[in-house]
Amino acid sequence: MSGHPNTLVGQIEAVGARLDDLLxxxxxxxxxxxxEVLRDGALALSRPVxxxxxxxxxxxxxxxxxxxxxxxRDDGSGQAWPNRDGIRRLFVFGGSTxxxxxxxxxxxxxxxxGARLSEAGLDxxxxxxxxxxxxxxxxEMLRFLALLDQGIRPDMAxxxxxxxxxxxxxxNPRLVEALDGLYQGEKRRRRMGLLSAVADYWRExxxxxxxxxxxxxxxxxxxxxxxxxLITWDAVEAALAASSRPADDTAFGAPGARVAGLxxxxxxxxxxxxxxxxxxxxxxxxxxxxxxxxxxxxxxxxILDPLHRLFRAGAFCAPVYHWLHTxxxxxxxxxPDFVDLSEAGKGxxxxxxxxxxxxxxxxxxxxxxxxxxxxxxxx
Length: 379
Hints:
This protein has two domains: 7-172 and 223-378, Rossmann fold (3-Layer(aba) Sandwich); 173-215. By secondary structure, it is an alpha/beta fold. The model has no long low-confidence stretch (mean pLDDT 92). It has 13 helices and seven strands. The longest helix has 28 residues, at 253-280.
């Protein structure tokens, strides 16, 4: 299936897997139906630049993926915008695990949360999915502010984080540098005559433009002296093996503790800024620390562990999550607006992860159930 628009297909082929290997993650669907979901899901890779330089998802309408021009993903019901009178709005922010990469509209965490709230008798709430690929809590803070700038105010906001905040512990300068290079080149050409600008464009095309454009998933390991030991393939395999058994922060040594402290400090800063904006606008907020395949996950809940060869930086979650549980989520563990969902998948007799991090419908529903228990008393 070379040339498939969805990058996941090329990735599973690169590690010797096939589309049929995804069947356990999509109970009841045929390989052809999974392929349709993946082809629709590829549209989420089309990223427009939004306010504050954020990358969103282009509006689209397909059988399984529908993104509204207002920037949220539909839950499969054709959600109204603005919403109906008398209905309160819960905005959910997060990365691609919140957006629901490579699952249908109704199978995302926000969609399952809306369904579970209705089952709990909370029909007066509409859940809007503002997840976007590769977002960390810092990006979500800016997305939240951008909506407030437009006068769009939810009645409650939920921020689901953990994986990307661990993944981007060391930042993502390569994409920033590439985009700035293209921008500066265009500015330069605007000051030239037509022929000079064309010649300059072709010179750039032979160098910068001929290489691969970095993606939002590229990262910089920064201080390789402490980052590199955590993402060798042996270290990643050890982290996966430790996911289903207790381990303290010493299992990952000083490098793991340093990564965890860095991640948690940055997350704390994002939380503080979100809280400040929410307080000013009188919006209740809830922060949820999400499940990941590197913690409290049984091997049978994952189906494509070889993919972690291609995404070794995801293993940063292992020291972060074990450190947080050993140390009680410093400064957040007892906070009334924080909930730890990292063990939400325990006991789930189904595939939880359809690739390196994205949730299946069964896992999204399990997370939604746990969230209802936390959110209902606040609604």
